[in-house]
Amino acid sequence: MNIALWVIAILAALAFGFSGATKVFATSKYREGAAWARSVAPRTVQRIGALEILGAIGIILPQWTGVLPWLTIVAGICLALMQLVAMGLHIRRKEYSIVPINLVLLALPLFVAVGRLWWD
Q1: CA angle 40, 102, 30 (to 5 degrees)
Q2: Is the pLDDT at 120 greater than 80, yes or no?
């Protein structure tokens, strides 16, 4: 189970890290391709991206170093909550084609959080 948790954690970190970096460092380009991002201030998109980057770091680093490993669980829960909010936004905006992506991005960190809480 530990190997599965690490594989899923790495996938989640890559997905959220890449997504967050795009939002932070290529905000205007990101806003061109994401309709929801044009409905909020650029600074809001950057803040969401920064939270995603922190979550990506948090889902790997504490567990890997053994320093405050409970932060991995917190990061997983926070990333999952972000995806719940994102799903609500996309459903409200009738962007139903994006919801399956949100479900996958919800499942990855939630699996890590639950796994580290109960199987570790």
Answers
A1: 40
A2: no
